[in-house]
Amino acid sequence: MSFQLRREEVLDGDRLKAMLDESPARAAQAILLAAREGVLDAQALLGQILLDGQGIAQDQPLAARWFEIAANGGHLMARNMLGRCHEHGWGCNANASVAARHYRQAAEAGLDWAMYNYANLLATGRGVIEDQAQALNLYRRAADLGHAKSMNLLGRYLEEGRVCPADPQAARDWYRRSAVGGDFRGQFSYAAVLADEGHIDEALDWLRKALAGGNLNFLRVASKALLNAPNPQIRALASDYARRHADLTQESTPP
């Protein structure tokens, strides 16, 4: 069936995002049209759907190109995503130094996700000289902006007293805020604190939330960690984590 897109619909970045949930294929057509019209949000979205293969054939090199076009136009998330392409080799050769440059530029412009990604490189010395103090500063800045993943890592620095005074109470609060913000690692961290405090039922609730949202690597590591939990109810969740990991592995394996 043919249809015609209104010009205001084509050029409205928010509308394009909503359309992705309603009809990916139709949204892809609208996003492509708007990207060609020079709409920065659409150019960044086009890069994302090309990267994911959402409503359009997956094409990582073309995704990287559209991220670059949007980034050069001043789109900060596109700059961050261009960094991720270079970090992971999505459509280009993996180069952590180039990724760091893009992350730093977007971070300096105030993007929380770029602060987080640049901090990850600084914390591990990938593509840059390792600098834990600068990584901590970036995690703190992103956390203050509401970035849930950064909240969890800020909590880790505070709990361990890494390049800062140890502050278990502040760490607990950042873990809680990360958990409430939806980060599965934050949920796991907060559950560990609650378990140590004897709040087993609350800990189990957060562990189940982390189980539902966790990715493959997290589930693999977390399942092993849970095997060492002193509480038998928490320890029993290790098998659920291992089962979920196996299910996701099977789903991601090509037939």
Looking at the structure, what is the overall shape? globular
SSE string, helix = H, strand = E?
HHHHHHHHHHHHHHH
Helix proportion of residues, in percent?
over 70%
Strand content: under 5%
CA-atom Rg in angstroms:
21 Å
Poorly predicted ranges:
1-11
Instruction: Report the end-to-end length measured between terminal Cα atoms.
Output: 32 Å
Residue-averaged pLDDT, rounded?
Answer: 92
The total count of strands amounts to 0
Question: What structural class do the secondary elements suggest?
Answer: mainly alpha
- Output the number of helix runs: 15
Outline the biggest β-sheet.
Answer: none
Q: Can you walk me through this structure?
A:
The protein is mainly α and about 260 residues long. The chain is built from 15 helices and no strands. The chain has a domain of about 60 residues. The N terminus is likely disordered.
Task: Give a quick rundown of the structure.
The protein has 255 residues and is mostly helical.
List keywords for this structure.
255 residues, 75% helix, globular, disordered N terminus
SSE blueprint:
Elements: H1 7-11, H2 13-22, H3 24-36, H4 40-52, H5 60-72, H6 76-88, H7 96-108, H8 112-124, H9 132-144, H10 148-160, H11 168-180, H12 184-196, H13 200-213, H14 216-226, H15 232-252
